[in-house]
Design a protein that fits this description.
The chain is of the alpha+beta class and about 80 residues long. Helix content is about 35%, strand content about 15%. It contains three helices and four strands. It has a four-stranded mixed beta sheet, with helices on one face. This is Glutaredoxin.
Length: about 80
């Protein structure tokens, strides 16, 4: 999938408060000291549309978008740590 530029220069986590995978990924980012912005897809229609575009119509969360437009969908802790370097 082609990278997408959401107009920000920061790591963005798209998710929902009820999702344990979103909470886990955000906790890992916080523990690693990685600044990020959280966007609730249930409260933001534009965010839902962006997530669906990235996933070809699906809305799996968390969807984590890097400043370069690359993204991970529902990453395991190992996948997220590997991407963080």
């Amino acid at each position: 999938m082609e990278p997408v530029d959401d107009g920000s220069a920061e790591l963005v986590v798209y998710g929902a408060g009820w999702c344990p995978d979103v909470r886990r990924s955000r906790a890992l980012l916080e523990a690693e000291g990685v600044p990020h912005r959280y966007v609730d897809v249930e409260a933001d229609e534009a965010a839902t549309e962006l997530v669906r575009r990235l996933q070809g119509g699906a809305r799996r969360i968390p969807t984590i978008v890097w400043p370069d437009g690359s993204h991970l969908v529902e990453p395991s802790d190992e996948e997220l740590r590997a991407r963080l370097g």
